[in-house]
Amino acid sequence: MKRAKRSAVWSHFKLVNDHKDAKCTICGSILKYNNSTTSLNYHLNMSHSAVLQAASGSSQPTITTALGRRVCDSMRAEGITQQICNMVTTDMLPINVVDGQEFREVIKYIEPGYNIPSRTTITTRVEASYARKKAELKTQLATANVALTTDCWTSLNTESYITVTCHYIEPDWQVMSAVLLTESMSGRHTADNLADKLNQTVETWGLTGRVVACVHDNARNIVSANSPTRVNWHSVPCFAHTLQLAINDGFATYINRVIVAASRLVQHFNHSNPANKALAAKQKQMQLPSHKLIQSCKTRWNSVSEMFNRLTEQRWAMSAVLSDCTVTKLTDARTLELRDEYWQLMEDVAPVLETLKCATTVMSTETEVSISDTYPITFSLINVHLKTDKGDTSKVGEFKSRVRTSLGERMKIASDDLTSTPPMLATMLDPRHKHLGFLTPPRRIAAHAKLLKVLAEAEAGRGSSTLADAASDQQEVVGAVPVQGAVLQRRSAYALLMGENYTTRSTDDVEKEVDSFLKDPPPLLDSSPAAWWKVNEGRFPRLANLARKYLAIPGTSVPSERGFS
Fold first, then answer.
1. Residue 451, SS3?
2. What is the DSSP code (8-state) at residue 381?
3. Is 30 helix (H, G, I), strand (E, B) or coil?
4. Residue 365: CA atoms inside 13 Å, Cβ hemisphere, count?
5. Which superkingdom, per the lineage (predicted)?
6. Which of 74, 363, 372, 471 meets the CB 3.0–4.6 Å disulfide criterion with 430?
7. How does DSSP classify residue 24?
8. What single string gives the DSSP state of each residue in 406-444?
9. Residue-level pLDDT, tens digit, the chain, 565 residues
10. What is the end-to-end Cα distance of the chain in Å, rounded?
11. What angle do CA 303, 305, 309 make, to 5 degrees?
12. How many angstroms separate the CA atoms of 213 and 149, rounded?
């Protein structure tokens, strides 16, 4: 049995063509009918508004009055309220958006029978949504080993904030991330205050003892905050920030003159309305892309490269504007026009800057494994891309040499501890880089030995570390020496039951797994290490546990910076 047609539009329409179309009884127009009266209502309001107005005094309800009396049932009202809350949270809108006159007009037009909730209601709903999401994330993080990134920033109102993000790999090897904290920091950004904030965040989220590392920039206070005396995790400098510092060292040459002059030229066009309009006209006349000029910024990575590329692209359009005395004063033009040697240097250094930009981009991913690329990329830059070539000009060669030296020193590639760092362990656990072809044979052997040691300790420590911690806790609480003795006696009993060769057999198993992993053919360089481990976890279970732990570390602190960029 067909449902009765209750909409007021049927006073002016009738169904035709087996109910597929609707015919207007006023003008005879035939419209498609898909069980919705929206298009029919639109037709009446746009084409026959006079007829509707004339009928407003009759007893027959008009379209407008019929819609105005429509009741918004509780289920639909709840759905609309939830969508408003989602809009506020997802688009980060102020809650008082619900008080806006135009917002209320839109809702009234879409759903006249809906009562818009107050700011208090939306606030309560948003807070409840936050609590639910936080509980869900806590559940996801309950057993995960995580890595952190952190950075501080200042708002336009000069208020200081800190952001902390966490990163982990799920059982299905999906790389995940979440923001744990973004809040104001009223106190000074001392190492102690920063460390306290990080430790409080870890404790709040129940992550104590499961944080592998924290990735941060090279500022002295945050480096000190992540020292072993203040936190219980590894400190990992942000690769992108380290590389940028090395690049800045390279810029402290003749290239800096070019940067200053280029920045002055860009500033002129960005701040002069006549020059900007004239540039747009010249771009159109010369059939150049209608691109805005890019200003370099010390705190924004790769901005110098982007500025040089854009200036080179728009060179002749800018020159034409500077040559036009009706737009640019002759004295200004002489000051702003770049020397030919500056233009040449921008072109010559562009390939080097593009390579460095590529390295930053690759390392700044948040959805893929990146930490294991740290040293392969570092050594590739130092040994290949930053080596001076015969075709390099003296200025480009000097830039390469300075960046190369600075990067090597900042990444501590000559350090004896290189093979023990979290990025190097992650590199060995990445099936693409496990052979460490960028290292000398002696250091390669030392690195693989370190991996074997860490893996053996992880296996052996599952039980013994727990027992030792339990003994320590008991002694600390009650001063119970007999309890510690009982624990040691129990460990001796384990040795008696398992046999003196038990540990040796476990070590042999670990060595066999590592040896088998190293002999396994490596995947292609553009393959995903996480996807590889998802397939091969069963073959190398011990290494897989370690890989899930170390490969979760981001290569840069960019995720925490994205929270305010």
1. helix
2. I
3. strand
4. 17
5. Eukaryota
6. 372
7. E
8. HHHHHTTTT-TTGGGSHHHHHHHHSTTTTT-TTS-HHHH
9. 455 566 777 888 888 888 888 888 888 888 888 777 878 887 887 777 766 666 655 545 555 555 455 678 888 999 999 999 999 999 989 999 999 999 999 999 999 889 999 999 999 999 999 999 999 999 999 999 999 999 998 888 888 999 999 999 999 999 999 999 999 988 899 999 999 999 999 999 999 999 999 999 999 999 999 999 999 999 999 999 999 999 999 999 899 999 999 999 999 999 999 999 999 999 999 999 999 999 998 877 689 999 999 999 999 999 999 999 999 999 999 999 999 999 999 999 999 999 999 999 999 988 999 999 999 999 999 999 999 999 999 999 999 999 999 999 999 999 999 999 999 999 999 999 999 999 999 999 999 999 999 999 888 765 444 334 433 443 443 333 344 444 445 555 555 555 555 545 567 889 999 999 999 999 999 999 999 999 999 999 999 999 999 999 999 999 998 877 6
10. 59
11. 115
12. 8
Nearest to 166 by CA among 143, 192, 148: 148
Query: What is the rounded CA–CA span in Å between residue 455 and residue 173?
Result: 20
Q: At what angle do helices 239-251 and 340-363 cross, to 10 degrees?
A: 170
* Paired residues of 496 in beta bridges: none
Radius of gyration of the chain (CA): 33
Residue with token string 């540039």: 279
d(CA 423, CA 420): 8
Q: Write down the pTM of the prediction.
A: 0.78
Q: Which letter does DSSP use for residue 291 in this model?
A: P
Closest CA to 547 of 212, 298, 261, 260: 212
d(CA 438, CA 384): 11
What is the C-alpha to C-alpha distance for residues 430 and 37, in angstroms, rounded to an integer?
Answer: 59
Residue-wise DSSP of 480-504: -HHHHHHHHHHHHHHHHHH-TTHHH
Nearest to 6 by CA among 82, 79, 69: 69
What is the token pair recorded at 517? Answer: 């992993």
How far, in Å, CA of 555 to CA of 364, rounded?
7
Largest CA distance in the chain: 102
Q: What is the DSSP string of 166-180?
A: EEEE-TT--EEEEEE
Q: 545 with 227: CB under 8 angstroms?
A: no
User: Residue 524 and residue 531: Cα distance in Å, rounded?
Assistant: 12
For residue 115, report the phi and psi dihedrals to the nearest 5 degrees.
Answer: -90, 115
Element (H, E) at 273: helix 273-285
Half-sphere exposure of 12 (CA within 13 A, CB side): 26
Write down the residue that tokens 């129990």 correspond to: 490
* Continuous segment of H or E residues that includes residue 15: strand 13-16
Token code pair at residue 54: 């004339």
